[in-house]
Structure formats: C-alpha cells, structure tokens
Write a structure and sequence with these properties.
Helices cover 42% and strands 3% of the residues. The protein is mainly alpha-helical and 118 residues long. The chain has a domain of 79 residues. The N terminus is likely disordered.
Length: 118
C-alpha cells in the first residue's frame, strides 16, 4: 500500500528477501540456544535447571517462533486484510453523550425481575 504517493518500506523491493534472511538468522540463533541448552541440561545431566537454562529455553522458543514467521511470510506479514464491519473503526460516529436522563434503565442481572422501586 502506498500512502501519499510514497512507497512504504514494507513494499520496497529488498524487504522480502531481507525479512526472510532475518528469519533464517533467528532460526540459527534458536538452534544455537537450544543446542547449548541440550548440552547443559539434557538427558543424563545432573545439573539443576537455573536462570541460564530458562533464559536459553525462552530465547530458543521466541527466536524459533519469530524466525519461522519471518521465513514463511516475509513481506506478506504486512499485507492488509479485509475485516468485518463489526470490527472496523468508526471515526465518523459521535461518541454517546453523558446525559443519563434519557438513558434506558439497565435490566437486573441473573434474570431477576425489578420490583419497580429503585
């Protein structure tokens, strides 16, 4: 999409290969972190997991997730998709006024009937 005649950086020619290369790099970081984690606390290890092991696991998970997303989607990550009118922005609609005199009285919760007294 263009805004005001200028091309967006997400639509520029080198963006897609760059994002996909970044995805490969993140997958390499994830593989390194998870391999290091495996050698530190893998099967047969007598080491109690500490903060470093949890940090390596978190880095591996997040880098693998982001890397796979970037590698598979590339610049399509920024594609605009149609949304339902229900979720569309309503900039032209005026916000409701704070006048509560004409507002309907809310119904009672849980199906209880109002007795007519406040």
């Amino acid at each position: 999409m263009t805004h005001g005649g200028a091309r967006s950086w997400a639509n520029s020619r080198p963006t897609d290969p760059g994002l996909r290369a970044g995805g490969v790099a993140l997958l390499a970081v994830a593989a390194f972190a998870l391999r290091l984690l495996y050698h530190r606390a893998g099967p047969g290890s007598r080491l109690e997991p500490g903060a470093l092991e949890f940090l390596l696991a978190a880095i591996g998970f997040f880098a693998a997730s982001a890397g796979a997303t970037l590698l598979l989607l590339g610049a399509h990550l920024f594609d605009q998709v149609p949304i339902s009118a229900r979720w569309a922005r309503r900039d032209a609609v005026r916000p409701p006024s704070n006048d509560t005199s004409a507002a309907p009285r809310p119904s009672m919760p849980c199906g209880r009937r109002s007795t007519g007294t406040p």
